[in-house]
Specification:
The complex is a heterodimer of chains A (421) and B (244). With 421 residues, chain A is of the alpha/beta class. Chain A contains 16 helices and eleven strands. Chain A has a six-stranded parallel sheet with strand order 3-4-5-6-7-8. In chain A, helix 3 packs parallel to helix 4 and helix 7 runs parallel beside helix 8. The longest helix of chain B is centred in the middle third of the chain and has 23 residues. Chain B is elongated. Classes of the chains: A alpha/beta (421), B alpha/beta (244). The complex binds iron/sulfur cluster (SF4). The site of iron/sulfur cluster (SF4) has 10 residues of chain A, from loops.
Chain lengths: 421, 244
Amino acid sequence: MNLERKVEILSESAKYDVSCSSSGSKRKNTKGGLGNGAYAGICHSWSEDGRCISLLKILYTNYCIYDCVYCVNRHSNDIPRAAFTPEELAELTINFYRRNYIEGLFLSSGIIKNPDYTMEQLIKAMRLLRENKGFNGYIHVKAIPGADSRLISLAGQYADRMSVNIELPTGKSLSMLAPQKNKSSIIGSMGLISTRIKEVREERKTFKKALPFVPAGQSTQLIVGATPDDDLHVLNLTQGLYGRFGLKRVYYSAYVPVNTQSSLLPAIASPPMVRENRLYQADWLLRFYGFKAEEILDEKHPNLDLNLDPKSDWALRNLHLFPVEVNKADYEMLLRVPGIGVISARKILAARRVKALTFDGLSRIGVVLKRARHFITCQGKYYGERGLNEELIRLSITNTKRTFSQASNQLTIFTEEFLGC
Amino acid sequence: MIVYIYDGTFSGLLTAVYEAFYQKEKPGQILKEWDYSQNLFSQPIYIYSDNDKADKVFNAIKERISFTALKNVYYAFLSETDNGDTLIYNYLKLGLKMGKYVDGNYSHETVSRLHEICKKVAREKHRMLGLIRFRLIRGDVYYASMEPDHNVIALIAPHFARRMSDQNWIIHDIKRKTAIVYNQTEWVMTELEVTQALPIDEEEYLYQKVWKTYFDKIAIRERKNPRLQKSFMPSRYWKHLIEI
Ligand code: SF4
């Protein structure tokens, strides 16, 4: 089988993986070597679905002995199959990299023979790249669920980022849809990686020469909308993963119905994109805005509002905290105002040290006044035309007629600024 | 209105700023010579580049304002925006009054406009890091062409010199007829115009084809969103890409 055909099959099989980030690694080029890491990540292209192409995201093979219900590559599907050799994969990566098509490699695989054998193949390909070809670009590798911990540790020495996919929000959903995988081994591998990352970071403080281990951290991904699990559950899980394992990112992927014949899966016409987008926004609130999952959702509101971003929704449920005076409020409170992001909050602090901010000045800073005006005063004056009335504000910032286009519009802004990938 | 006209180089601009501070006749506008067209209402004064004067301004910005301000001025200069040079002059006037606090004055119109322009340049610089495509030509040289809105070529050179340190490459700004040439040791900026087809290496076609296939296959049809794609990757850049 020629190279082009293999790429065709094995990228088609890898496209549902959501992570595309190439950020978080400062790997330097070596003398006579090729490549380095760009800490902020670099997008090299955008595919037709509007997602950033940063890494050569591909499977080592799509032969798989497992039979996960939601997956195109599952054993029982009748699709064309292919496998690379480690040499082919390394050669392809290098040649794409030299032409500036990519930031590096995102290597995943179906499970051939057994998890250990599969992990070994991935390690071979990475070792070839790093040791024989002097490649210092980004590598994100998937830890194969169930692989021996020694192999996972070894893989981490070659990778910049490693991910173990949670796949589904609950153990119950997992055992229903991916019966050969099990939650405790997934969590076990995550724990192992997170412990190694911490150990090596310590070692490197004393021995500068100690080999790095997953310097860009670990991430995971889960599918939303394939099972009835609610957003409250997803967010609590996410919060737990950030807290317990120090994950860099949790990715959410709107369930795409690829195997429609199964009765275990919901019949939906299109992936729940707006829900996915809201989850990313809520995730952002957890990571950068100091929110707790239980502030965003609770038993009474177990799902995110599809018509309103989660910060506005939170603010409307907590109107007693508003309006805040932009010239006085502290950073944490500014961050909680809908329409004020991390960058504009910082700018507000800097600008008002020079002189008191005016309402016009706010828009120059980049505050989204359409939302913020309802929640702030500026030099004592309130600019919202609706007063502090929950229903009226809700109406003014959602504008239900345009909900969909607005949501996709927000997706545009959101993906760019926040996903940064 | 008094208009200062300079040769279009960075040191020419800094010289013009120097003169503007020391001459009695303050400019209402500072323009590159090719942007100036004579009219009844303007009184042009030609400023000759002077490296000593330029150095003085350069150091004054760094020491009396800040390094960030210097970078802002350079980015704004590279932006080639209409009236950008006059804006730089106004920004520096304010900067010398306010010192390092000038960039915190976000709500000031001059400052916010200048920041906006710098942001555009920084953004395009970042985009070009990802969007240029090297083609292997015979003689083992990788060649990339581009036509950025702003003059960012010098800003992206160090990145590729670090990254592609073991290959020979050329990055060519077709619009401005300039190029960066790198020989595995150092890079230089030079004038360049290519008038005939480049001698493409055989192997190049294979990887271009595979890359196109990859690009095509990696998109999820169920999530198709060409508007989103275009907003990240404006079509004016497509001409120099391979995949699209
Ligand atoms: S293990 Fe499951 S999810 Fe992974 S490739 Fe095989 S079938 Fe698909």
